[in-house]
Inverse folding.
């Protein structure tokens, strides 16, 4: 009997089929001619997580989501969704809900009518859930209003309601907070947190790093079509060396003293004409301060710098780009 193959014609890995992760990819790739949109992407999304998928424009986030949702065929590699290889994604039925790009609705119909049309394609069980999903996304009071009168935030919530109609185990969202005002972002944040607390696994791409830090239990950073960091949000930030800002009498001298310190190495930079910021794994603020004082630098203020997801993200992407630039034999890459 011939081995089963994925949508790209490659043999399906039986370990992926038996996987208990919500999403797992191994070497997932997508080429458009000579351009590599996704290039050997390895990703693991735990069940029950609210997972943020981060990366700059062109990193391959949307292309990855399109492969996971069956809209694009991979060129190489493997992927499973809820333990089912993407080659057999149709067997998942309503176990996966997705909102890819902007939700599309009939503006002249109400939210109820739009969802009813969708539910009619999913069977009588789905139709019975309309009141429930409208309540979950907070649209019960306006369910009979024409969607053309909805704000952008209300449309986003209706899009999530649409994805929830089949009662999925996994929700895949592409930029769910895009274009929202602060009130709309808060509404979507609260909704996603509530859905995750109810046991739903949520995988979302986003540029809103502060929102992701507040909301997501896990994150992955992708650059040039590859995952360059992934793990629990809190653990990743704790694992990075915290920074400390020092107000000093001579920033130039302070940088020289810190650069000349014995290993472990200290990273330091001038913030302004009186302030330097320093960080080093294994050294706390008191030790850094002592090094400066011994070096003849007068310190008048010491302020810890909280490590944020934004600073971690920027550093991770910058390091990935620098590493790629230093690798011989580059070729064109791009992604959505």
């Amino acid at each position: 009997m011939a081995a089963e193959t994925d949508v790209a014609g490659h043999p399906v890995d039986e370990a992926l089929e038996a996987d208990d992760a919500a999403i797992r990819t191994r070497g997932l790739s997508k080429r458009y001619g000579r351009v590599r949109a996704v290039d050997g992407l390895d990703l693991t999304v735990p069940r029950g997580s609210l997972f943020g998928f981060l990366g700059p424009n062109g990193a391959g986030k949307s292309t990855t989501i399109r492969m996971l949702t069956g809209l694009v065929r991979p060129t190489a590699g493997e992927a499973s969704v809820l333990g089912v290889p993407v080659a057999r994604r149709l067997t998942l039925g309503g176990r996966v809900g997705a909102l890819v790009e902007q939700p599309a609705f009939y503006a002249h119909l109400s939210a109820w009518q739009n969802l009813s049309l969708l539910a009619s394609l999913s069977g009588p069980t789905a139709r019975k859930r309309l009141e429930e999903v409208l309540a979950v996304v907070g649209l019960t009071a306006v369910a009979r209003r024409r969607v053309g009168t909805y704000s952008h935030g209300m449309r986003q919530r209706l899009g999530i309601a649409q994805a929830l109609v089949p009662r999925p185990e996994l929700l895949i969202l592409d930029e769910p907070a895009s274009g929202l005002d602060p009130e709309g972002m808060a509404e979507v944040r609260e909704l996603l947190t509530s859905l995750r607390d109810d046991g739903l696994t949520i995988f979302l791409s986003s540029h809103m790093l502060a929102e992701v830090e507040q909301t997501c239990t896990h994150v992955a950073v992708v650059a040039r079509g590859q995952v360059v960091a992934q793990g629990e949000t809190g653990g990743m930030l704790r694992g990075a060396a915290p920074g400390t800002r020092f107000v000093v009498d001579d920033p130039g001298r302070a940088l020289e003293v810190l650069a000349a310190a014995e290993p472990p190495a200290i990273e330091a930079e001038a913030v302004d004409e009186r302030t330097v910021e320093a960080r080093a794994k294994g050294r706390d603020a008191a030790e850094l301060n002592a090094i400066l004082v011994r070096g003849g630098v007068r310190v008048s203020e010491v302020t810890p710098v909280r490590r944020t997801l934004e600073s971690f993200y920027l550093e991770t992407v910058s390091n990935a780009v620098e590493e790629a630039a230093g690798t011989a034999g580059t070729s064109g890459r791009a992604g959505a």
Observations:
- The CA atoms of residues 218 and 232 lie 4 Å apart.
- Residues 1-15 have pLDDT under 50 and may be disordered.
- The two ends are 38 Å apart (CA to CA).
